[in-house]
Amino acid sequence: xxxxxxxxxxxxxxxxxxxxxxxxxxVVVLTNNDGCICAACNIAKRAGIGKKFVPYFQVKxxxxxxxxxxxxxxxxxxxxxxxxxxxxxTRFAPYSHIYSIDECFLFYGKGAYKPPEGWFEHARSIxxxxxxxxxxxxxxxxxxxxxxxxxxxxxxxxxDGFRGVAVIETEQERKSILKQMAVSDVWGIGRRISKRLxxxxxxxxxxxxxxxxxxxxxxxxxxIADTVLELNGHARIxxxxxxxxxxxxxxxxxxxxxxxxxxxxxxxxxTHAAIIARKLxxxxxxxxxxxxxxxSSIHAKEPYYRKAMVCEFSAPTNDTRVITKAMCSxxxxxxxxxxxxxxxxxxxxxxxxxSHYQPDMFVASQDNKALMGCLDFIxxxxxxxxMYLAAQGIEQKFAMRRAFLSPQYTTRLADLPKIYCNDx
Length: 424
Description:
By secondary structure, this protein is an alpha+beta fold. The chain has helices at residues 10-17, 42-46, 56-65, 75-89, 119-134, 146-158, 171-179, 191-199, 205-209, 213-219, 222-231, 262-282, 320-328, 331-334, 369-382; strands at 2-7, 27-30, 37-40, 69-72, 95-100, 103-107, 138-143, 165-167, 249-259, 285-296, 306-317, 341-353. It folds into 3 domains: 9-76, MutS, DNA mismatch repair protein, domain I (3-Layer(aba) Sandwich); 78-231, Alpha-Beta Plaits (2-Layer Sandwich); 249-392, DNA polymerase, Y-family, little finger domain (Dna Ligase, domain 1). α4 packs antiparallel against α5 (119-134). The relative contact order is 0.11.
């Protein structure tokens, strides 16, 4: 048996954990630089506000009229609460897999194990425990395959009568839930594929389950054929404990306000260089060549400006100092006087695995593995950017705009909640 635990409106729900005053209000969370809506709580959704990826300035008056609480993305808070939620869920099963920041799969093995209280009560126990310990509302769906667990989770959160928990254990339960699901709601069925399926008369998840797997393989792909088998209770999808290394790594971000100073642009580039170097070390990769770019806004009144430069290293590297030095050396070629820069970034374009790299005896590497290991150890233990290169700047004027940022209740000492007890 598999279980899928999924937080309801993750970002908005996290905002309500430490602020009881907004728990019964519509809450909307914005993307980087407070640009667009990225999440809305159920109260906001029922009120018809908070549609995803709509620019905030377009619906600002509508949100104010509805009394919505606006929040900037507090990634530090979301990541910490996500980790706590995952730790709580994984106590309930021998195997687990974190699928995303708000979802995790639980697997109970291939045997005939069944909890004494039954699967439904077991799922309810997971949901109640997460609420009691983390104060996040989750939906729990259980099924004989990961795809059926996803379908059960969909029922738990969106279909009437389930109230946050659904279990697909019998044939009757399977058919009942799949019949109420559109084929586009099935895990792995995107918009284009669902349209093609609709064209051949497959509209519901049950229609897809009743299709022939070999026909789906010929018409679509092996993945769709496996989905058909999964919907019929035959587990075909598995996950790896370690994700495949990325073939390219980028760090980009738009500025909170337009940048016109060369030094500020240099600091932003150095910051992005440090980020990709850290990610390279995390997945045990080396960069052969790295690109740096900066550009103005395409929507600005002044002429659009964009410049990119690529640096190739004689010896592949993942050393923060080496990559930062190379990127900052391109600042004179990228910077232009009078340009109001909107965004910049750094990207490692060609990567190789450290275990497969054969050093060149005629080219000495400038990497200092011991120093980088010390840097990562300190930052992992005491928090990101506890130590960093001076090139990144002490006061980052290029930081993204977060005008509605809530306190970082669990990751910043100054923001820890304070409780005052009055003598009776």
